[in-house]
Amino acid sequence: MSGAVDQLLARLRKEDAVLVRVESTQGSAPREAGTWMAVWADALTATIGGGQLEFQATQEARELLAGQRAIDGIQRYPLGPSLGQCCGGVMYLSYQRITAADAPALQRELVAKLKPVALFGGGHVGAALARLLAALPFSVRWIDSRDGVFPDELPAQIDTEHSEPVQDAVAALAPGSRVLIMSFSHAEDLDIVIACLKRLRMRNDLPYIGLIGSKTKWATFSHRLEARGFTADELARITCPIGVPGITGKEPEVIAVAVAAQLLQSLG
User: Fold this and answer.
1) CB of 9 within 8 A of CB of 153?
2) Who contacts 248 (Cβ-Cβ below 8 Å, separation ≥6)?
3) How many domains, in total, are found in the chain?
4) Which one-letter DSSP state was computed for residue 3?
5) What is the CATH number for 184?
6) 65, 87, 108: which is the final residue of a domain?
7) Under a CB-based contact definition with an 8 Å cutoff, are residues 133 and 157 in contact?
8) Are residues 243 and 193 in the same domain?
C-alpha cells in the first residue's frame, strides 16, 4: 500500500499537476491547514475535504493546468450557502502547478510535515504496520539490527535503518517521534525501552512509546527496569500491551490496525 506522497511522486514523473494546499482556516472546516491534494487532468491524489469546495477547487485547478486561467495568491472560500456546505467556516487555498522537476523538493517538504514514527522491528507485525502507516499522516523510520529484512521497494514516507546494537538508534530519533518496539527478541526490546527511558530523562521529547507484548511480558520488564533505577512514573510512560482495547485478533494486519488507531489517538 502506498501513501499519497508516493502516489503523487510516481505520477508526477509522467505528467504535470496542480497542487492545491489548505493554507489556513477559520471556524469549522473539513480539513486543517497543511492538507493538500494533487489535481491531474483526469484524477485526484489525496483530498482537501470533499464536497462542493473540492469540486470547485478541482475545476479551477484544471483550468490552471490547461492554461485557461491564472490563479495568483491565496484564494478565500466561505463554506456557506454559496458553496452548498454547512460547515460555516472559511478555507484559504493556494494553487501551484508542479512538474517532475519539483518532485525532490516536494518529497522533502511533504514528508517533513508528517508526524515521525520510529518502528523497531522488521518482522511480520512491523511490516504490516509500515505498510499501514505509509497511508496515514506519519513518516516512518524503520529500524532493525538484522541485514536483509526490509523490502527492496518502499513508499517515500518510509526510511529504513540498520543499527547494531539496535538501541543506539534511539539517540538520533527526530524530536517528537512516536516509538513502536517489536524487535525479534525480548532482549533487544528491553534495550530499546531502556534507551527510550534514558532519552525521556534527558530530553522528554518522545510523546508515545509502545511495546508489543502481553501483560506478563510487561510485568517482567517492569521488575527489571525497576532494578535499574527507573521509577513508577517513568515506567508509566511505556504503553504495553499496545493497540486500542477490544481488538483481539492476533493476525499481523489486525494488530497493525489496532496500533495505528492508538497512534492516531495520541495525536490528540
Assistant:
1) no
2) none
3) 2
4) -
5) 3.40.50.720
6) 108
7) yes
8) yes
**Is the distance from CB of 114 to CB of 138 less than 8 angstroms?**
yes
Say whether pLDDT at 146 is over 60: yes
Q: Which of 108, 128, 150 is where one domain is finished?
A: 108
CA distance 140 to 52: 33
Indicate the average pLDDT of the chain.
Answer: 93
* 207 and 90 in a common domain: no
Q: How many residues does the chain have?
A: 268
Check if the beta carbon of residue 256 is closer than 8 Å to that of residue 124. Answer: no
CB contact at 8 A, 166 and 117: no
CB 45 within 8 A of CB 110: no
| 265 grid coordinates | 489517538
**90 closest CA partner among 34, 30, 18:** 30
CA 44/CA 58 separation, integer angstroms: 8
Residues 80 and 118 in one domain: no
User: What confidence tens digit (pLDDT) does each residue in 152-170 have?
Assistant: 888 888 999 999 999 999 9
Distance between CA atoms of residues 135 and 263, nearest Å: 13
Q: Which of 160, 159, 149, 130 is nearest to 260 (CA)?
A: 130
Domain ranges, residue 136:
114-266
Q: Do 61 and 149 belong together in one domain?
A: no
What is the crossing angle of helices 215-227 and 186-202, to 10°? 60
